[in-house]
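Box 3.1 A note on notation
Throughout this textbook, protein chains are presented in two layers. The first layer is the amino acid sequence; the second is a token string describing backbone geometry. Keep the layers aligned when reading.
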Amino acid sequence: IQNQLKLYPIDKTQRLYRGQRISKEELITLEQNCGQLISVNSFFSTSADEKQARTFLNASHATNNLERVLFQITADPKMTATKPFADISSYSEYPDESETLFMMGSIFRLNSVNRSSDNLYWTIQIVLCGDEEHGLKQVLTFMKRQVGKKEINLRILAKFLSNMGKFDLAKQYFNRLLNELPSDDPSRYVLYKDLAELASQVGDYDDWIHWGKQLLLLEPSKSIEQPKDLLQIPNKDLQLYEQIGRGGFGTVYRARWLSQYQIVAVKILHLTELNKQAEKEFFNELSLMHSVRYVYIVTLYGVCMETGKYGMVMEYMSLGSLYKILHQDRLLLNWLDRLSIASQAAKGVNFLHKFRPPILHRDIKSMNFLLERFDKGFVVKVCDFGLAQTRSETTRQTQKTHLLLCTFQWTAPEVLDVEGEYTEKSDVYSLGMVYWELAENKIPYDERRNEVISDIVRRGDRLKITETVPSDFATLIKHCWAHKPDDRPDCSYLIELIEECIKNQSNFIFCSF
């Protein structure tokens, strides 16, 4: 996109506009930083037509937490070479909008924040900065002002530069820190993950594969951090944005971890209070979840322990859950996409099962696999494992409010029995149900009552697999949901079977041409 913007340069100073909504907290932050530099962390779409921008502004219905703002932007193309902007209206589906697009990471000077003359919205005046105006020294000064007296380490600096769009410089600092660490330092894992995410941002597939392999080479013992490293993050260090999910366990928000300059997902649990024993169990379970770091497992960064606001601060996955993309977004997936998702899901669960004693997920369902786009495919990660006691306490506190979702659809027959034992093979059964859901694009046992589902599953009946599902994947699903746990494959063998399905599907596509 950066190269394309360079192909359509603007040759004279522009006056541009953008109407949108921002939170009151964001507005206050901007007011407090007039005269300073601000970085745009995504591609910034504007219009040369103020009337058009006002139309977008007027279409944005204000809420209690959001304010209407009209950005007034002055942009001189002579000011910057590394972050171009261009008039793309002739290439847009909406040419009447007179759209001008700024490159991700563009830097602006914030000149003023004022209320409009009619008192209906705010006007924010910003000016595009030249490359020489935002050198590293100024960036560091800004960072120190943002985080107060906290230490600015190389990783925070690299992540900040990445958010500014200075990817090459961010990569240099990540690598510099990596070179300073001993070869057996467990924190290398976090840097491998940072570098893989950076490669994903810039679309460098080879680099992403390289750092992904480095992650896979780490033994479980080297990917473990001590439970004491689980951060207790104060609620005031988190700025919540929109709700992105809700279930029986908690409500999930996209948020910003202010001190780390990082977008995260925050799950506020449906817990009002915990006694000391329950609080200890809650912290212990989350410490276990935090200690497991793997490329196919969602990272837990920390926990909120304030009474009535118990929560989990986790890695943000922009597409949300597999359930969401299948049944709400109705995203169209080809068979290679589906098999890739199945493979990554199995690898995440398999990693948990390799621990001694094995870590059992106990709640595998499509809601607990989160997705992110990468290149032309997807990255899949498992979340919310090992939280049996916390779930039990949540159930106790919310049973009268009907907040809990039924998960019988994914539950193994032996678990539905009163005296049934939960094992790794119970997780495999649940994976099989997720695979059926992925193959058929339907919710398992949709609209059936719990007791009906339980009766069906315990007597050995299973859902129908249509002929549109590749036969080898259909057979794999049937193996996963075999009635006897011993007849089901373990996750290691399951991965091999899925890879064979992928190979067969690739050969089929090749032969079709």
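DSSP finds 17 helices and 17 strands in the chain. The mean pLDDT is 81.
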